[in-house]
C-alpha cells in the first residue's frame, strides 16, 4: 500500500512566472488578431493540415474558435495541476528527494503548459493567415521548433528525474 505523499508549498520559480506572463500576452495578442480579422475570414477556413503543413481539410470558420477554447481549457487545467505537485505520479519518490521532485514537477508542468499554449498561438495565427490567402501553408520550421521544444523539455524532465 502506497504511503501518502507530503503536501509541500513549492514556490513557482521567477522564470516560470515570467514565462506565464509572456505566453498570456502572446495568447491575448493572437485572440485580438483573430477578432480583428474575423469579418474578413471566408466561410470556409483550413481545419486540418497534412504532414507538410498543407491544408487537407476545410471547415466552417466557427471551427477556428475551437483553437482558443481548447488553448484556454488546457492552460487553466495545467495551471491548476501546477499548483498541486503532490498529486502527480513520481518515479523513485523518497523522503530525501520529495522537494526536488516537486520542484521539477512544477517546472515541468509550467513549461508543458506554456509551450502547448504557444502551439495554439501559432495555429491561430497561421490558420487565420492561410484562410486570408496571406500564406499557403503552415510555417513548418516554426511548427517543428515548437514541437521539439515541447517534447525536448519532456525529455529533459524525465532525464533529470531518472538521475534522482
Automatic annotation (TrEMBL):
Report what the protein is called: DUF1648 domain-containing protein
Q: Please provide the record's keywords in A-Z order.
A: Membrane, Transmembrane, Transmembrane helix
Residues spanning the membrane: 14-36, 64-81, 102-126, 138-159
Outline the extent of the DUF1648 domain: 26-71
Pfam families registered for this protein in UniProt: DUF1648
Amino acid at each position: 500500500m502506497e504511503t501518502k505523499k507530503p503536501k509541500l508549498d513549492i514556490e513557482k520559480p521567477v522564470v516560470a512566472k515570467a514565462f506565464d506572463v509572456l505566453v498570456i500576452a502572446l495568447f491575448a495578442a493572437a485572440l485580438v488578431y483573430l477578432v480583428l480579422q474575423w469579418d474578413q475570414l471566408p466561410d470556409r477556413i483550413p481545419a486540418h493540415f497534412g504532414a507538410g503543413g498543407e491544408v487537407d481539410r476545410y471547415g466552417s470558420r466557427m471551427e477556428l474558435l475551437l483553437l482558443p477554447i481548447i488553448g484556454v481549457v488546457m492552460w487553466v487545467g495545467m495551471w491548476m495541476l501546477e499548483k498541486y505537485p503532490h498529486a502527480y505520479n513520481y518515479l523513485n519518490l523518497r523522503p530525501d528527494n520529495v522537494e526536488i521532485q516537486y520542484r521539477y514537477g512544477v517546472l515541468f508542468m509550467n513549461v508543458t503548459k506554456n509551450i502547448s499554449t504557444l502551439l495554439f498561438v501559432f495555429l491561430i495565427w497561421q490558420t487565420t493567415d492561410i484562410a486570408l490567402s496571406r500564406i499557403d501553408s503552415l510555417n513548418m520550421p516554426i511548427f517543428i521548433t515548437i514541437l521539439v521544444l515541447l517534447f525536448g523539455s519532456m525529455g529533459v524532465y524525465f532525464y533529470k528525474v531518472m538521475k534522482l
